[in-house]
Amino acid sequence: MPHRRFPGKVILGVTLLAACSTSGPVTLQGCRGQVAVAVTEGTVPTFSWTPECLMSEIVVARVSDDSVMWRFGHSTAPSDEVIRPPISYGVTQPGVVSTTAQDLQTGTEYLVLVLSVDIVNGGGYLHGEASFTP
Q: Side-chain half-sphere of 37: how many Cα atoms within 13 Å?
């Protein structure tokens, strides 16, 4: 996968989420490498990835200024990798924390990132990304 700019706010957010965890050691399950991310059309897209595996966090950011439009992830479950594809923009799952999804604008470019968070060692791992324009 070609190198792409990883929004600084997203890295900080993933790091803060990992640093704020009070859970004990977690055996990470789920994705163990790169995935191919697919996005449906429209201003309320659905995100999926292959191979299908569990993720910790989904982030949608506006490319022009790195503004986070929606962050979905970091659950309180024993394993933080609980997000299964497909995920519809703005739709939450039980036990998973989410910000309020901001409206996506037609003609504006966005980037969706799918990540796992290492709450034991800190930081996150970017498994895949896709840019899209509703």
A: 25
Give rounded-to-5 percent helix, strand, coil for the chain: 10, 35, 55
- Residue 28: CB atoms within 10 A of its CB come to 19
Least confident interval from 4-13, 50-59, 65-74: 4-13
CA 34/CA 41 separation, integer angstroms: 23
DSSP state of 29: -
What number does CATH give the domain 8-132?
Answer: 2.60.40
Q: Furthest-apart CA pair in the chain: how many Å? A: 44
- In sequence order, the 6+-apart residues with CB closer than 8 A to the CB of 32 are 53
User: What are the pLDDT digits (tens) for 104-132?
Assistant: 999 999 999 999 877 667 677 899 999 99
DSSP 3-state assignment of 108?
coil
26-64 pLDDT tens trace: 333 478 889 999 999 999 999 999 998 888 899 999 999
H helix count then E strand count, the chain: 1, 8
